[in-house]
Amino acid sequence: LDVFYVYRSLITIFLTMLICGVGIAGNIMVVLVVLRTKHMVTPTNCYLVSLAVADLIVLLAAGLPNISDVVAFWIYGYTGCLCITYLQYLGINVSSCSITAFTIERYIAICHSIKAQFICTVSRAKRIIAGVWIFTSLYCTMWFFLVDTDETVYTNGVVVTCGYRVSRSLYMPIYFLDFTLFYVIPLIVATVLYGLIARILFMSPLPSHLNDRAGGGSGTCLGSKWLYGWITKMLAVVVILFALLWMPYRTLVVVNSFIDPPYHNTWFLLFCRMCIYTNSAINPIVYNLMSQKFRVAFKKLCKCHWGQREAEYNKPAVQSQREPPEGIG
């Protein structure tokens, strides 16, 4: 049993550190390239920044505490239990709302291209994002009243855990509310709207030279269907990954609502957690693979970062050759 526990713990720590490390770095890069590059500030990219920040919160509040929980039980105290749980659900729910928002924006941009010139603006996107964060922040405050720390006394010490202060029958309706608002409804909306988008694009096939130009489109809301082809495919992939990677955990919650005792297989729980972390980490990789503009922006950001580091490293060496530091010689 001890060998099994150590083996599982090592796998959990390794996978969590790998996925969270890649995800944190990638999502920070998404935020930086959009904020630091003027032509990248588009309505769609504003939603992607919101999604990146939400994913960062998930990785920091859910992923990293999982590492310490494996090796030392709960070490963050009562306040940490409340805040970390709140941030986990805040990140998860904002991520879902951001996906829904850019799906609707894509639909308007392609299926109502004339209206889109007035509706799909950066300022409107920022207002929508602010509304999403305010609504979700208020909605998630209920978790401050639903969780608590629990101390179990053993002969060799006290084990502290962060869990629910209410019974299973009381918090299950809340899980189903979350399941409906932030998983089922977004997927229904995405399925319907991307179906309408595909229908529009299929009914009006584009010349090959316009398809080529679409790959280098600016991504702004200009009302031209071909301009949105490349980014629409990319965002559809993001939605599909969201649906697939959240499915194991969401299915587990639904199944456990109807069976007693609940299904708590250790390896399947680990698989569900890793799927959630992967969902928050994979989007920057998708952008890099499917968007030329993001790929170029990522490369420029990396070159800029390493160029600054090399300049800082070489600067003292150049100075030391010309002029000794003060107080020497």
From TrEMBL:
Gene3D superfamilies assigned to the protein according to its UniProt record, in alphabetical order: Rhodopsin 7-helix transmembrane proteins
Localization (cell): Membrane
Segments forming domain G-protein coupled receptors family 1 profile: 26-287
Record-annotated membrane-spanning stretches: 6-35, 47-67, 73-92, 128-146, 174-197, 227-247, 267-290
Top-level taxon: Eukaryota
Gene Ontology molecular function: any one: thyrotropin-releasing hormone receptor activity
Gene Ontology CC, one term: membrane
GO BP, sorted A to Z: phospholipase C-activating G protein-coupled receptor signaling pathway
Alphabetical list of SUPFAM superfamilies matching this protein: Family A G protein-coupled receptor-like
Entry keyword annotation includes Cell membrane: no
Pfam assignment, any one: 7tm_1
InterPro entries given in the database record: GPCR_Rhodpsn, GPCR_Rhodpsn_7TM, TRH_rcpt_1
Keyword terms, alphabetized: G-protein coupled receptor, Membrane, Receptor, Transducer, Transmembrane, Transmembrane helix
Annotated family: Belongs to the G-protein coupled receptor 1 family.
Job of this protein: Receptor for thyrotropin-releasing hormone (TRH). Upon ligand binding, this G-protein-coupled receptor triggers activation of the phosphatidylinositol (IP3)-calcium-protein kinase C (PKC) pathway.
Name by which UniProt lists this protein: Thyrotropin-releasing hormone receptor
